[in-house]
Amino acid sequence: MKEQSIRKVEYKMQDLVITNQGQELIAKMIAGTSTASFTKIQTSDYDYSTASLKDLTSLYDVKQEALVSSVSRTDTTMVEVLAAINNSNLDSGYYVKALGLFAKDIEDNEILYAVSIETDNPDYMPAFGGKTVSGITYKMNTKVDISSQVTLEINPAAVPTMQQVQNIVIAISTHENETIYGEVGVHGFRYYNEQLQVKNEEGEWTDVESGGGGISPSNVSDLKIKVGNQKLTIFWSDPGNTVVEGQTLCTWKGTKLVQKAGSYPENAKDGTVLVDNQTLDAFKTNGFEINNLVNGQTYYFALFPYADTGATNINEANRVAGTPQPYKKMTAIIDLSNSNPATCVTYADDAVGMTAGDSAWDEFFGHYPVLLKNGVEVGKLNPNNFDQFEDGRTADISSGDAGDAMIAFPRRGLTITTSGTKITISMTDDPDNEDFEYNAHTRGTTPKDVFYLGVYKGYVASSKLRSLKGKSITANQTIGTFRTQAQANGSGYEQSGFYQLTFRQCMYILKYKNLNSQTTVGYGYVLSSHNAAIASGGTETWGMDCELIKATNPSYMTDQNHHVKCFGLEDFWGNIWEWIDGLVSDSSRNVLTANSGFNDSGSGYTNNGNGGVSANIGNYMSKPQGSTKAGFVAKEVSGSETTYFCDYASLYASCVARFGGGWDNAAAAGAFPLYVRTASSYSNAYVAARLMYL
């Protein structure tokens, strides 16, 4: 049932002008050959300022129509006519520039009897804004000459006017022996517990919400809710005043935020008022935070903007719900004023109290090994023995018939910011937090739940790039050739991308809290005397981060003669380089990036600037670009193998990218050797590729 709020407005319509048809009807009444019965009114937003009102027989651009609800004599030649309109079925607002009064003669012919116009300050009828109906009552005095010939009966279907409603209230209040105050009430009305109430169709007492008089404010905007651990934060912009063509139709006074258990609040009293905000946009930026909530339980809220007249907006568009979750925000801060890679990183936010290298980090990241075929998981692999599925069954990760050995990285949000000498890296397991970017888990504009990277460096079979155990790694091909071979596996397949590289580099910094990846996890196959890459495989039982080797053969991690395994990726660095797609530099060394549509020139990519790099650079990286989009592309290179990032990096003009270091790169390899210094036409035996599915 819709609630009604009749607006009290002082109208300034010009006096009614009786039309020629109306004059003819008056003449017939004087002659005693006809009677007049006032039937309805019509409203219009047409500008009649230059029209001849007497000649009108109908109104143009009719917006609304209402039956006459009251006719009463004021003297022998005049009557007062009342009619009410409301916006309950009005889709769009309009200005009432013209009002037409209709009448029927003795033969039931209906004519336009009189017209009134207002061009300077017309009344405004707003569109229906929710459950509250806004209405206007018109009071018209018109000449009839012989009032006895005017029918005073009205159509019972007419909308009652405010005056008639007030008469009903007056009639109720004249009961001498009954009162609306108290539990019993009168005629279905009562004022009880400081609330005016009426009986509904079931005979139950319900509160009356008049919402005040006048026009209510517009809806709030920018409404959103941020989910947190045992908390929710609600953001919104208050509507402010409603001004149309220079006229202030409504003055916003405040907005109430109301919470209700189990369902949305219907009105400002239907629940608990959390805040009655009377400062415009007070919660637009930082939001209103609600704490001590239960994770997993849904909470319902509604905002009720109200005017200085008390008129309240109860539109359902102002509703929002949220379910708190134990999402975390893990943050690592790199202080580049400290060149020591082991001490320059500190934890913040939910990372405070975490232990570097602890398995709790893996629980937060959620990554896992899997056999993937045609973009579908065949089954999860045993993280301590990739030759088996989780349940112990043998997994074929060699032939290629069953699929490819991949590492799945579930959706996480990421931000990288630089302020002065500090780089802040934050990651959240909230899958949809607008404070974060999800570049590694987005394909074009399509969000993805998981991206997959090959456990092994790529092997090409039947012109397709694969990730298989015990294979001679395919190399000596251009980045474009590998791209084509990766895509030959089907839709969603690519070679490893830049945003996915940035993601795993951030994983490394968060988990290990040390920029020297080789001393922290392992050197990899990088001995300077090596002259070729070794085949894939042999690390299947090492764990996800060389756990077994660290415990049983720790010398493997420092002799520069064995694979390194990090986050389940064999040869995360070392053994052989891998091309990185989705990253290109232009002729000004601007960093161009993309998450789809990979190509050699960077066409269609996002330009992230160059961070002030004005000449080709290459050496041990001391400072990266340090943004979410440009990641760890080199910006300054004044470090060494034991300071800052401890890895060699470069940024040249008009080049594509390769990553990780090769079989003889020694200390120059690691988690950060990103070389943007190679032409797209280049191929060499020490550059390979890694399969990706997104």
Radius of gyration: 38 Å
Structural class: mainly beta
Q: Got a strand count? A: 50
- Give the fraction of residues assigned to helices: under 10%
Low-confidence stretches: 1-13, 162-176
Number of domains: 4
Distance between the termini: 50 Å
Q: What is the helix tally?
A: 7
In what range is the share of β-strand residues? 35-45%
What is the overall silhouette? elongated
Q: What is the arithmetic mean of pLDDT?
A: 89
* Major β-sheet profile: 9 strands, mixed
Defining traits:
eight-stranded mixed beta sheet, Immunoglobulin-like, disordered N terminus, 7 helices, 694 residues
Structure description:
The structure is a single chain. This protein is mainly beta and 694 residues long. The strands form 13 sheets. Strands 1, 2, 3, 4, 5, 7, 8, 10 and 11 form a 9-stranded mixed beta sheet that branches. Strands 40, 41, 42, 43, 46, 47, 48 and 49 form an 8-stranded mixed beta sheet that branches. The protein folds into 4 domains: 3-168, no CATH class; 175-207, no CATH class; 221-322, Immunoglobulins (Immunoglobulin-like, Sandwich); 331-693, no CATH class. Mean pLDDT is 89; it is low at 1-13 and 162-176. Helices cover 9% and strands 36% of the residues.
Write a brief caption for the model:
With 694 residues, the chain is mainly beta. Strand 13 and strand 14 (205-207) form a beta hairpin.
Q: How is the secondary structure organized here?
A:
Layout: E1 3-7, E2 17-18, H1 20-31, E3 36-44, E4 62-73, E5 78-86, E6 94-96, E7 98-104, E8 110-117, E9 123-125, E10 132-143, E11 150-151, H2 162-173, E12 189-192, E13 195-199, E14 205-207, E15 221-228, E16 231-237, E17 242-244, E18 247-250, E19 252-260, E20 272-277, E21 288-290, E22 299-307, E23 319-322, E24 329-335, E25 345-349, H3 360-365, E26 368-373, E27 376-382, E28 385-389, E29 404-410, E30 413-419, E31 422-428, E32 442-443, E33 446-447, E34 450-454, E35 459-461, E36 464-466, H4 479-487, E37 493-495, H5 498-512, H6 517-520, H7 547-552, E38 565-566, E39 569-570, E40 577-585, E41 591-593, E42 606-607, E43 617-620, E44 623-624, E45 634-636, E46 648-651, E47 656-659, E48 674-678, E49 687-688, E50 691-693
Parallel strand pairs: 1-10, 3-11, 40-49, 46-48
Antiparallel strand pairs: 2-8, 3-4, 3-7, 4-5, 5-10, 6-9, 7-8, 12-13, 13-14, 15-16, 16-21, 17-18, 19-20, 19-22, 22-23, 24-25, 24-31, 26-27, 26-29, 27-28, 29-34, 30-31, 32-33, 34-50, 35-36, 37-50, 38-39, 40-41, 40-47, 41-42, 43-46, 44-45, 47-48
